[in-house]
Amino acid sequence: MTSAAAGGNQAAMSRSPPKTLLFLLAPLAACDDDAASEPGSPVSRDDLSRIECRLSNETSFERFCLIERRGDTITLFKPDGGFRRLRREEAGSLVAADGADPARVSSQGATILVQIGGDAFLLPAQAAR
């Protein structure tokens, strides 16, 4: 490769942001500081809604996780960039769609508590429908 060709590639690369950066910033675009105060109720923005979650070492729930529903798949995004994926089965129950940890799901009135590994998420009941 000539130095002119290499220089042209560097110029093209510097004009566009890395795709991984765009992927990481997408969930942040859905954050909304005017979150409703009712536990388990999402704040919608396009396909993402903010929900309450309690991550591994935490003792209380906070509204900083995001939920995305696409058909029968629900993805729960954690603020550290990790995520948990659930699948709604025909009977309406939720199960872990991938990963080694099974999902423990229980109903709590208008919300559903989903526990996977050391994480817990409060989903609005309509998310499982």
Detailed description of the structure:
By secondary structure, the protein is α+β, with helices and mostly antiparallel strands. The chain has one domain (3-128). Helix content is 16%, strand content 40%. It has two helices and nine strands; from the N terminus they run H-H-E-E-E-E-E-E-E-E-E. Strands 1, 2, 3, 4, 5, 6, 7, 8 and 9 form a nine-stranded antiparallel beta sheet that branches. Strand 4 and strand 5 form a beta hairpin. The longest helix is centred in the first third of the chain and has 13 residues, at 3-15. Mean pLDDT is 74; it is low at 5-14 and 16-46.
Strand content: 35-45%
Largest sheet: 9 strands, antiparallel
- List the uncertain runs: 5-14, 16-46
Estimated helix fraction: 10-25%
Order of helices and strands: HHEEEEEEEEE
Mean pLDDT: 74
- Specify the overall morphology: globular
What would you call the structural class? alpha+beta
- Based on CA atoms alone, the radius of gyration comes out at 19 Å
Total separate domains: 1
Number of helices: 2
